[in-house]
């Protein structure tokens, strides 16, 4: 029997239900996976609240790591006992569980240097940071970026990766405690978005020029400030909507903001090609294994604490990565 978290209606954390079910044997192309750790991501709240619509009832979570317990027909690249991790989108929903069947094609075999807890804390966040730093913009050494939610799970990895690329990082946070965390992971300058004019401070810190790229995971509350922080022909990367959806805009505003660019990327489109996915995975794992990028697991929960975990996440009480330990 497996314990699985499901929701039968959209809403707040209280709509999550804990259910027991039989896992069964893997079919062709599948494996039965016993989870060791499960990632807690802000995207999980989007599925639960209906921002990302899915047929109901539905499982939750699309990132986890564990040990293969059975292999279905046709699976040749994995075997019983292998440690693996995965992330995806709707094709991997159901990670909030103790055990599950899953398509072997989405699984990533873990090297000895990466623990299951590290993997659950970094597969989605790390691959997101990987494509943001390596695929989204042709960064040149010495450029400056603005990073919202700099003390979050993705933010801490992006900050460290940006320093490896020789970039200057301006991070926004909500508190002194989070500022300390962000600075320790590579942020050169801190802006307190709740009490400072972000765009004005960015102009001060860049001699009036603005930044090359803004990584904005906050959304509605920071959107205009992010646009106003860009240099001429800069890029705004909208990677989340923690404060709510960005309202519709007139594209002419981009011309008024210095011929700015906007993109709203999704991880799934950067790992759809197996070769590109392997490239991102290898570079990420290499940095972590060598100690060049540290994965901070600052919150650990039991699966039965999923409701509280979501409340902590949406209440901005967390820093770094959060995981469920199975």
Automatic annotation (TrEMBL):
SUPFAM superfamilies: GroES-like, NAD(P)-binding Rossmann-fold domains. Keywords: NADP, Oxidoreductase. The keyword NADP applies. It comes from the Bacteria. The keyword NADP applies. PANTHER family: QUINONE OXIDOREDUCTASE PIG3-RELATED, QUINONE OXIDOREDUCTASE-RELATED. This is Quinone oxidoreductase. It comes from Comamonas guangdongensis.
